[in-house]
Amino acid sequence: SAPFSTEEHRDALIRRRIKFVVEKGAMARLFRRGTSPELQEALFQRLRPAEIAKIQTREEYDAWLTGIVDLDRWGAFSKNGLRNDRWAYFAKLVNIVVYEIAANRELFADREWLRLRPFLHIPIDRKVTYHLNKIDPSIPAIARLRGMTKKNYCKVQTAVRRLEESNDLPPIWFEALWSASRPRGYLS
């Protein structure tokens, strides 16, 4: 007999990805101290691979993500008040966790990952937007995330998607752009 079922293994993989993201130093400090286990459980309950895998279009992903981020349940984990943190930190957190789950080959087939990858939003932070603004000035350089509105969040995502379409790259890939030196001819 196996030590645990296929479903238990899947859940363990999801929980590990959530734990990895939530407890990472840069993310951990964005949320109310002492709530990490509860935040991880709330994410686990909402971010189910079977539900994510059903998403077929960018519009469906946007609506799904908005529905998740708009939940009031995040208030218990908010450090600065949900109004200040919802689109600044919770949207970023959900997107990173979805990326980690969807990119896991044990949870998603290659065809599902390749279909979903272009839908994922770029996790916004000041370094990413600063460097993207250098490539395309229509992308707002965000100096401070706290207090970001849904309108501003969507404005950045729309601008990044325009850049993505002109370069034939998924928006999520632009997050790494600032951390690596730009190869010759890349996005020239």
Briefly characterize the structure:
The chain has about 190 residues and is an all-alpha fold.
Taking all residues together, what is the mean pLDDT? 87
Distance between the amino and carboxyl termini? 57 Å
Q: How many alpha or pi helices?
A: 9
Let me know the number of strands: 0
Explained architecture:
The protein has 188 residues and is an all-alpha fold. The protein has helices spanning 6-22, 25-28, 36-46, 49-53, 58-69, 82-102, 110-116, 126-135, 150-167. Helix 1 packs across helix 6. 27% of the residues are buried.
Features:
188 residues, 0% strand, disordered C terminus
Chain-wise SSE layout:
Elements: H1 6-22, H2 25-28, H3 36-46, H4 49-53, H5 58-69, H6 82-102, H7 110-116, H8 126-135, H9 150-167
